[in-house]
Amino acid sequence: MNIQEVLHRLRINPTNSGTSTGNDWLKEESTPAITSYSPVNGLAIAEVQSAGAQSFEHVMKTAEQAFVFWRNVPAPKRGDIVRQFGDELRKHKQDLGTLVSYEMGKSLQEGLGEVQEMIDICDFAVGLSRQLYGLTMHSERTNHRMYEQWHPLGIVGIISAFNFPVAVWAWNAALAWVCGNVCIWKPSSKTPIVALACQNIIADVLKQNDLPEGISNLLIGNAAGTMINNNKRIPLVSFTGSTKIGRIVASAVASRFGRSILELGGNNAIIISKDADLEMSVIGAVFGAVGTAGQRCTSTRRLIVQEDIYEDFKNKLVRAYGQLRIGDPLDEKTHVGPLIDTDAVMAYQSAIEKGNTEGANFIVEGGVLEGDRYVSGCYVKPCIAEVENHYEIVQEETFAPILYLIKYKTLEEAIALQNGVPQGLSSAIMTLNLREAEAFLSVNGSDCGIANVNIGTSGAEIGGAFGGEKETGGGRESGSDAWKGYMRRQTNTINYSNTLPLAQGIKFDL
């Protein structure tokens, strides 16, 4: 793989700017440059210029002008633009997936899978563009008709995280576009280069259709995020990231009466029943825990295992971990790539140290890998620790491949353990017992936004609304009726009589 050839095909200039409205690249000399380094080998990929107030204001004006046009384009025609974007993603899938893998560190298969998620949400949004349904309802007044309709909000701010550097943007943008909104995207400063590539692709689609460039906009740098959160001209901010930063975003947006879609931390558990298929359970647990090096918001953090099968399952799990291959994520034989950067490595080491202090028993030891294959310093060993659910470190989300093993007796106890953390994103139970499965999905079961049976916690299908409860933020993206979050509801009443009856029978004669 020649990454320079990939960058060339995706039209990435090693000194490209970080602010874009369509094909219009801006550069503010007074703002700092950001260099993106690959966690694969520690080498610089490219340098981008961060956005300042001047760039932000230019983007805002361009987006506002584009919205006035875009909102009047019929929704099915907006959907056709998204269809064309999806077709272009298909053409660039290999290069884009490779760049995702190289810049973020996830395996090539996962990088390609992330681009496929972008393609899938485009397909979903195309169909949705003909299904932005309102309701009709009966009026209490004679010869009146009532209905509700949905209108676009305007400018949607999208702040995405490094772990899914392109898919989560596409989840938001594809829906926002077919709903008639325009978007301003602030990607993670840890993965800005793949964002530039995506902006190039959508900008070409817009240009080929003679559409305003401001329908899709890109701003790089933390200052851009702050400006998005505090600007009252942006009615909706979709933020994906940590619970800590999510609190700041929610407060800033709410203070100006804006809306926010928050996709924050997860502390996801799989309950392993004594009636589970253990071989299948091991596969689900291992992939959930080590996929993307434990840097998914849906990564499996905890395994809650029934005491009768605990030792057997633990032994199977340890053997499976012994077969993991850690290394270059662009090598198809690799299971686990690097963490995003050395800060993530320090957080991993700190979590292990804290776990040891609290009494964790590490049955698979962790550690930072060294040597020529791990020159970036970002490669770590996936580890497993026997713990109690109440340990402080277990209650936290550590973005690293650390798996906590917990024992339970009864299903009621297991569900209480599963729910006994501040986060509420994804959850699962492995069981062939129908009663257990239904209990887990019932009102007395999992308190998470996602609850699965006989599959793991990680991953999500495009057709279902994605999001969680409690400190995960309560937001919903992607499928189902998540589109309503990107629109404003309007109730309409039409009087087609020759009188004006007042509500509740009030008389007001002149």
From TrEMBL:
Residues 25-491 form the Aldehyde dehydrogenase domain. Keywords: NAD, Oxidoreductase. InterPro entries: Ald_DH/histidinol_DH, Ald_DH_C, Ald_DH_CS_GLU, Ald_DH_N, Aldehyde_DH_dom, ALDH7A1-like. It comes from the Bacteria. GO terms for molecular function: aldehyde dehydrogenase (NAD+) activity. The active site is at E263. Its EC number is 1.2.1.3. PANTHER family: ALPHA-AMINOADIPIC SEMIALDEHYDE DEHYDROGENASE. Homotetramer. Belongs to the aldehyde dehydrogenase family. This is aldehyde dehydrogenase (NAD(+)). The lineage of its organism: Bacteria, Pseudomonadati, Bacteroidota, Sphingobacteriia, Sphingobacteriales.
